[in-house]
Amino acid sequence: MKRTITRTVVLAAALVFSVSLMTMRAQLADDFVGDLARGNMAEISLSQMALQRSQNESVKQFAQMMVTDHTAAGTELQTLATSKSITLPTATDQKHQSAMTKLGGESGAAFDRDYMKQMVNDHEKTLSLLQKQAEKGTDADLKAFAAKMVPIVQGHLTAARNLSATLGNSGGNSTAASTGNSGMNMNSTRNSNSNTRKSGNSNSNRKTNANGGNTNGNSNGNSNRE
User: Fold this and answer.
1) Which residues of 60-69 are buried (b: 16+ CB within 10 A; e: fewer)?
2) Per-residue pLDDT tens digits for 141-196
């Protein structure tokens, strides 16, 4: 009798543990999919805004890449979520809504810089989320999806960082203009240094000739007097 009761208790505890584990895994899957979907929606919305507001061709090209790639990722995520009976959120979180409100009041170079900074921050968080899921995820399908998305988001992040740095240094000018100005500055510096060296050599020659002249004069004078 005692053995039967003990066995029943053990089985019940195992069942509870199993159910709890399944619930926890399901919650983790929901959290991952929800966080990814909200970030995805935000990047699409912000990039659509950039396409309308930015006058910088490099920024607009990046924004178009974001809309295209994240729309495709969102469609794939929706299919995956449906297969697992996970309901995707229909709106972004408060932080992204605040970012959209802020950018909505900006224009020109200030908009470009802040948009790209937001893209860097968002992609850093998304990449971390995907890498964690790809390495430690318990759902095989979500894990595979995350692993597939990692190199894509890594590429986005690299492009965002490079463009953001360019905008910060050039005050919002396009990459081509920045490169051109940089080239002109470098040429100007080289010409200046060249002129300086020529001027320095010329002065040095004049000093040498002058000293040489004085030496010869003094030598001839002394020789004649002797």
Assistant:
1) bebbeebbeb
2) 999 999 999 999 999 999 999 999 999 844 433 333 333 333 333 344 444 444 44
Which structure tokens are listed for 183? 């080239």
Residue 19 pLDDT more than 90? no
* Cα–Cα dist 209/215, whole Å: 10
The number of folded domains in the chain is: 1
Task: Report DSSP state, residue 86.
Answer: P
Query: What distances in angstroms separate CA 216 from CA 202, 209, 220, 221, 223, one per listed residue?
Result: 21, 10, 6, 8, 10
Residues 6+ apart with CB under 8 A from 164: 113, 116, 117, 119, 120
In three-state secondary structure terms, 41 is helix
Read off the amino acid at residue 97: Q
> Which among 41, 32, 37, 40 has a CA at the least distance from the CA of 129?
32
Find where tokens 């492009």 sit: 159
Flag whether 204 is in a domain. no
In a domain, 9, yes or no: no
pLDDT tens per residue, range 27-76: 657 889 999 999 999 999 999 999 999 999 999 999 999 999 999 999 99
CATH of the domain at 87: 1.20.1260.10
